[in-house]
Design a protein that fits this description.
This protein is an alpha/beta fold. Helix content is 39%, strand content 16%. It has a six-stranded mixed beta sheet, sandwiched between helices. Strand 3, helix 3 and strand 4 form a beta-alpha-beta unit. The chain is globular. Pyridoxal-5'-phosphate (PLP) binds at residues 31-32, 60-61, 134, 169-176, 247, 250, 271-273.
Length: 288
């Protein structure tokens, strides 16, 4: 059992926000990856010998899986497109850390990737588990239920009396969806950081129908995932100066949407991802 992560208060643009500090849970297995992979973390070692997954080489889900597999002595095989020489040479970042934790990577040619990945689930033995990209799996629900229970307990404190909404950014939407389903008495705000609102809704609906308390805020302009934007960097700095560091891929867009579209006091569920900041900050520095 991990200790219950605390809730801190910060001020941004004269508004009060609370932050559920899930990024403090563990350096590798932090934020929503801890929540989404909670069930796997509770799984006895003996159940599996091998975990297979796939996706990008800077992925936070990849690092979280590498950490779990190391702790369980499971083999971790990760399929990805050709890895860039820059990433291979870096001695920091999610790819480097995951390799140090024992991850084995298999690089697939760009043209064959899609077909190869859809073939992965065929013919797996019962000791091998395939986890879809980003941990988008129904098994994530239990970990989000644990988070919802934790929040409900913490919200009994009178300083949270006026709280009616929480917020967390979306990639696959797995976190926001299951949080909304397990915390129906609160509004859950999210925003798509990968693709459009339509794409996010499709991803969510593949897991479960979208409940009424889940509100998807549309970004003011179209952002491409992992691209550099001045307003993202400014937002990152502003929140960091207010007292809490967030990631540079998801959080800036969520904060921009919240400041733009909401007026009430909101509890932001920190989704982690700080392990990627060193390489993102280096990219921003090069751009300047
Ligand atoms: C993975 C991730 C997300 C997106 O989570 P989903 O459940 O895929 O929507 C958001 N923020 C951070 C920092 C992440 O690592």
């Amino acid at each position: 059992m991990h200790p219950i992560s605390p809730i801190s208060k910060i001020n941004i643009d004269g508004r009060e926000f609370f932050i559920k500090r899930d990024e403090t849970i563990d350096p590798y297995l932090s934020g929503n990856k801890y929540r989404k992979l909670y069930t796997l973390l509770q799984t006895p070692k003996e159940n599996f010998t091998t975990i297979i997954s796939y996706g990008g080489t800077q992925s936070n889900a990849m690092l979280a899986l590498a950490a779990i597999c190391k702790s369980k002595a499971w083999e971790f095989i990760y399929y990805t497109k050709k890895i860039s020489p820059i990433i291979k040479a870096q001695e920091y970042g999610n790819y480097y850390e995951s390799c140090s934790l024992g991850m084995q990577t298999i690089e697939i040619e760009y043209d064959l990737y899609k077909e190869y990945i859809s073939g992965l689930r065929l013919g797996l033995d019962e000791k091998t588990l395939l986890i879809d990209q980003g941990g988008a799996d129904v098994m994530a629900k239990e970990g989000l239920r644990v988070l919802a229970d934790e929040l409900r307990e913490q919200f009994k404190d009178e300083k949270f009396l006026g709280i009616k909404a929480v917020a967390t950014p979306s990639g696959t939407g797995t976190t926001a969806l299951y949080l909304a389903l397990t915390l129906p008495e609160y509004i859950v705000y999210t925003t798509p950081c990968i693709g459009s609102v339509t794409y996010l809704r499709e991803q969510m609906q593949a897991l479960h129908s979208i409940p009424k308390n889940l509100i998807i805020l549309e970004p003011k302009r179209k952002y491409h995932f992992a691209k550099l934007y001045d307003e993202f960097f400014e937002m990152y700095k502003k929140v960091k100066e207010a007292g809490v560091e967030f990631d540079l891929l998801y959080a800036p867009s969520m904060w921009l949407s919240l400041l733009e579209n909401t007026k009430e006091s909101v509890v932001y569920i920190h989704s982690g991802g700080l392990s990627g900041n060193r390489s993102m900050l280096a990219r921003y520095k090069r751009k300047r």
